[in-house]
Prior knowledge:
The structure is a homodimer. Chain A is mainly α. Helix content of chain A is about 55%, strand content about 5%. In chain A, the strands form 5 sheets. Chain A has a 3-stranded antiparallel sheet with strand order 1-2-3. In chain A, strands 4-7 form a two-stranded antiparallel ribbon. A two-stranded antiparallel ribbon of chain A has the order 5-6. In chain A, strand 5 and strand 6 form a beta hairpin. In chain A, helix 9 packs antiparallel against helix 10. The interface between A and B is large, with 44 and 44 residues.
Amino acid sequence: MKSIIDRYERELVDSVIPFWESHCVDREHGGFLICLDRDGDPYDTTKHLWMQWRTVYMFAALAETRFAAGKRERWLELARQGFRFLVDHGRDAEGAYYFALNREGEPIVAPYSSGSDFFAVMGCTALFKATGDPECREAAIASLQTLLRRADNPKGRWNKRLAASTQWRAHDTCMATVNLGLVLGEGLGLAGLEGQVDEAIDTILERFWSEAHGVILENLGASFTPDLASPEGRTVCPGHGLESAWFILQHAEKNDRPDRIEKTCEVVRSTLEHGWDREFGGIYYFTDLLGKPPPELAWDMKLWWVHCEALVALLTGYRLTRDARLLEWFEAVDEWTWKHFPDRDYGEWFGYLNRRGEPTHMLKGGKWKTFFHLPRALLECIEQMEKL
Amino acid sequence: MKSIIDRYERELVDSVIPFWESHCVDREHGGFLICLDRDGDPYDTTKHLWMQWRTVYMFAALAETRFAAGKRERWLELARQGFRFLVDHGRDAEGAYYFALNREGEPIVAPYSSGSDFFAVMGCTALFKATGDPECREAAIASLQTLLRRADNPKGRWNKRLAASTQWRAHDTCMATVNLGLVLGEGLGLAGLEGQVDEAIDTILERFWSEAHGVILENLGASFTPDLASPEGRTVCPGHGLESAWFILQHAEKNDRPDRIEKTCEVVRSTLEHGWDREFGGIYYFTDLLGKPPPELAWDMKLWWVHCEALVALLTGYRLTRDARLLEWFEAVDEWTWKHFPDRDYGEWFGYLNRRGEPTHMLKGGKWKTFFHLPRALLECIEQMEKL
């Protein structure tokens, strides 16, 4: 185990963090340049709020770890300048975060997704936790209120679904609640959410988890029952299932719920059985539960974040149960992941591989990839292994 | 050439038309079931208006060809029942076509794209041409008016781009105008559009075509100049370039513009030089002009429609110029296409192949594939070869 911990630590400290520290800070306008090519050169200066706030979160969270020795103030300063830029430029008149700003901080894409507000809460909370700055706490609570206000219709007036459409219940909404609960509970000391978090976990384990099919369904019908007649209702996203699982495992450990731990480890094993590519290895991005055509063209690609979340889920589950099947799966996912994703020439990881594991994009950051899933997973994996 | 014509005819008559005739008609509710799996089994009953109207267009257009002998009335009836269903159920209070209806005809996705109206004009016009039914002509003109009303902001209130964003000029808007000009000129006898069509062609050949780079750019900045600092401005879609090219070639032939024919054949050759995959063959879906990361995950996939449009562009260009380089390209594209796309077991073609030419989806129809590009291309290719 020691050699695996070393490998994860070296990757975090020598490859991932230096890549982002060297390349992502916009010293001219503030905030971050996230759309970075293989060597760190920006290929787009658009500032997507999801990605900006995730980057604030990660620098702030890292500042609270042992890896921050001698670097804490530098990392906090990077997070703070991001916070400043985003709070000053990022919100519309009603307090919702836009989807994207241009480099100078002018809004260019409307706030059509409350994901921006979600990651603002996460980023502000992590920065408050690290600095104690009351402005960060206030900003976190303001965005939390925006998020709750938008809960019934997160896409707002950009929602294209009409009344006669199936009113889908989304797994990722529950997953986000559990994640928020973990971060807010620790960071802001708000206990009021606990009931909602508990309900979200039950909904995932009792409703979205289909024991009959051995997967978490991404979408349920209006009454939280499976609707397998349409592609939405048959969609499985193994990466989301695995990410949800480790949020639940950590919550169950803190709240002494061995029943949930056992069930969630079954979710992890079964999701991997379903999502693992037996021909080329790696975990699919999306599948159709019944093997019908998935709507996503790139369904069979292998994405870095899916593998990151799998590693965390497997190590957390193994530490809590010592189930040898989880360790075997960890070894398989670890081997495939480290063979295919790291970029040995320029540091950091490729994000997008084809089914065979060959990179289709050389980018290190983009509209949907930043300094987030990979360093968070490396940190979490190191912590799980150290506790073993 | 005779054996190639035979091959194209057999594919159209024995494989493509029977597949759709047997499987796509919704005899219970009207309209079409387009989301068909490999064997014709529907995997989704959503009725996307773009695809519905394209199907009306194709049955009506086919009824006007020599292949309709003994089948004309049957095909017109299929088009008519689609027309009836769509006109009765498809429009909102302002006359815009929704993006999607459910199987019963209730609107489920808002009219966020004027593409629905565009293909309504095409479908109604083709059906008017074949039947002379004044209701079809009226419906075509009504949707044309909707299209013109929406021209400044085709996405309406679902447009997420804000004022500070680059106001992109889209090549496909000009391409659609040229296509509409060809179909309306023939079908409705409306000459008023001719000036706009002429202007659209000039804009494509003088602005979107970048001689320096040898490609048609998908997006230009607000003043119709290249903006290569962002992914949008660097996007090349070879399939769109080739589709535009054959629309322009047919227009130029009718309007006696040899200057445009010569230039457009250069566009065709050069687009293929740029878009052809020299390692695995086939034409990429998208490229970044400067080789930076394309935003589309599936950029390196090989799509049926791209290859269909290439075949038409090459044969039309070759017939008009007898340029041997176009014939050589036709032979290469024809060989790759026929080797990889046709489904010899269930008929019709696979739509989505990975870079190596292996199908990633078994579907024959879906949200973006119906009875349209393939039969239209087979018809156009047969016509070009017969004239040779």
